[in-house]
Amino acid sequence: MKLYLLRHAETEWNREDRIQGQMDSPITREGEAAIDAMAARLASVPFDCCYTSDLMRARKTAEGLLKSRAVPIIEEEALRELPLGPWEGMLFKDILKDPLAQVYLNAPDAYHREGLMDFYDLYEKLSAFLMRLETSDYDHVLIVGHGVSIRALYHVMEGVAVKDFWSRPIAAPVGLGICNYEKGTWQVLRRADAEDGLSY
User: Fold this and answer.
1) Half-sphere exposure of 44 (CA within 13 A, CB side)
2) Exposed / middle / buried, residue 162 (Cβ in 10 Å: 0-12, 13-18, 19+)
3) Residue 195 — very low, low, confident or very high, per pLDDT cuts 50/70/90?
4) Widest pairwise Cα distance in the chain
5) Which of 101, 82, 83, 100 is nearest to 92 (CA)?
6) Are strands 2-7 and 73-75 parallel, antiparallel or unpaired?
7) DSSP code string of 29-71
8) Residues 42, 4 contacting (CB under 8 angstroms)
9) Which candidate, 27, 137, 196, 199, has a CA 20 to 30 Å from the CA of 93?
10) Rg (CA), the chain
């Protein structure tokens, strides 16, 4: 089985370097163009299905990538972005003034907000998602998620601990990653990391 993993297209808040979390903002014109270009690039891949976060920016990216293709699009809660509470809607530079932001970025294993999902919860949800995929008979699966959820998916596959979450940058918008599952083992074949691992 091959997974084709993509982060959603650039949004207005991405351009402003504003935290989205589980809030949303419109996809930019450049983001739409990137979706069209990637759709053409993936046109020959015979996808069995597509799993997408149910947040608008991911769902619209998935729909644009598949256009009129008869590929089922399934909303998957595990692929949602990590909720970031009062930071959502704030500029990234402004959250850095919050001491909890230093925990989030430098000690993710200690990051927690009461009543909200943390990195451990995200790993657990994505582990369960991968286990369901492993029992399927799919050959080619398209996955559309978010910077943090896609990075977490790679880490779950490779056994990277939560404390080392930020050891690599998050994916670039509409960046294509490819993973393979064979004989009970996941392998990350390709990443599409952003150059700047801190901005959103």
Assistant:
1) 1
2) middle
3) low
4) 48
5) 101
6) unpaired
7) HHHHHHHHHHHHHTTTS--SEEEE-SSHHHHHHHHHHHTT---
8) yes
9) 27
10) 16
Architecture of the structural domain at 2-190:
3-Layer(aba) Sandwich (3.40)
Residue among 109, 111, 104 nearest 160 (CA): 109
Q: Give the contacts of 98 (CB within 8 A, at least 6 positions apart).
A: 87
CA angle 75, 120, 17 (to 5 degrees): 70
Beta carbons within 8 Å of 19's beta carbon, 6+ residues apart: 13, 84, 87, 88, 89, 90, 91, 92, 95, 200
3-state SS, residue 145: strand
pLDDT in tens, 72-94: 999 999 999 999 999 999 999 99
Tens digit of pLDDT for each residue in 13-58? 999 999 999 999 999 999 999 999 999 999 999 999 999 999 999 9
Instruction: Return the pLDDT at 68.
Output: 84
What tokens does 114 get? 């009461």
Enclosing H/E stretch for 74? strand 73-75
Amino acid identity at 177: G
Residue 171: other Cβ atoms inside 10 A: 26
- Please, which residues have CB within 8 angstroms of residue 188's CB and are 6 or more apart in sequence? 154, 157, 158, 177, 178, 179
